[in-house]
Design brief:
This protein is an alpha/beta fold and 494 residues long. The chain is built from 19 helices and eleven strands. Helix 4 crosses helix 6. The longest helix has 25 residues. It starts with 26 loop residues before the first strand and ends in a 12-residue tail after the last helix.
Amino acid sequence: MTKRLSNTTIANVPAAIPSYDRRAVTPGIVHLGVGAFHRAHQAAYVDACLANGESDWGIVGVSLRSPDTRDALEPQDGLYTLAIRDSAGEQLQVIGSIQSLLVAPEDPSAVLAALTDPRTRIVTLTITEKAYLRAADGTLDGAHPDIIHDLANPGSPKTAHGFLAEALARRRIAGTPPFTVLCCDNLPANGATLHRLLIEFAKLRDADLARHVADGVAFPSSMVDRIVPATTDADRARVADELGVEDAWPVMTEPFRQWVIEDRFPTGRPAWDKFGVTMVEDVGPFEDMKLRLLNGAHSGIAYLGLLAGHATVDRAFADPAIRQFVDRLWTEAIPTLPQDAGLDPIPYTAELAQRFSNTALAHRTAQIANDGSQKLPQRIVASALARLKAGLLPEHLSLVVAAWIAACAARGGPLPEGHFTDPLDAALGDLFGRNLPTATMAEAVFDLAGFAMGHADRRTLIELVATHLVRFKQGGPKLALAALGIGSKSGTAG
């Protein structure tokens, strides 16, 4: 039987391994949402800092829902393999920055103990957009069952809001300085957004706690970027063969990585800037460029790719029609970016094109397609509304919204590898089953998802989306793209 990767077997693996003594590392960071992205991104940056002698920044990883990551990594002493892949080959690196792993539903008191530990000075989060529990207007969904539970049971919370609020309350009573909260999810102004949501949550508990969160806790915003496809059994087998030991959950990623952070850490931070992290005063322009150009294009590729039968990003992007669409999408989105922030979007999109063409990643379109109702507002709708405000039509941006709706509706039919999900699935299913006129249905979806609520150009955007939807229904993505002058004899979309 093949041995597992662990502290006792690591010395003999043919890969880069931690150069520091893991026994000398002490925890300084608690991370909520210890999934594949965190392990390919923030944990790898922290690993470099530990190798540089900053031994007080070890990570306590917390899963808010599933025990899967803990079950995979605990027998491996928290070690895992980062497989950095491109078309030229693969490099393996064993990451050792995660010291321990907790599962919140099993032992919330252990999570609170880690959060209230005076050595914890930073709490980072990658919990996905839907876990912030926002209502359609962007405020905290105070009627959500988990929020109601956390308000009634502060000592055994379920949500990130509940854990953060209770830990900050306990630290305040104990005279321990508050930790810095560093959001790493794809939310607009993610630090400010989480700060506002946590203040709203704290107000439902205690006015003094809300003031403490508002005035005494730092919430710098950040922008993260690295493509991390889901790990497959074939990936596990290949990594085990190369290492000579079994790794239950290696992480696949690309060579590119980026992290931009607002430099506000009252109780200190790792020297991330020594390892490529950009520390800035305002992360907003970088965030806008990434959300609107990378994430927006990813969503367009995902939904068009699924409808056209392309299972991975590289295959979809190799489709001439989809590639032409993405180029036009970028042309629409670039003018909506801040014009005086020193951004350079043309080289950025050229680099994105190379990343999307990476055949080694096999990044599944269905993986990107998940949770579109939560992702599209910042990736696509914001750009579309900015164009409308400027008197310009968002023809390609609005098509992405229509492609999402069409892909959601097509999941009951022959949509190859289209097993993606959305928080609104039940309500969307009911809506699609009502056989409404296309324009009425488009407006109902906008209402359901809360897209562009209260915006002066909302009606125009709905009409554009409805027009695209008619074409999707009549002739699939081929007709929808052809109506925009996209497609040729070599194109295969549709």
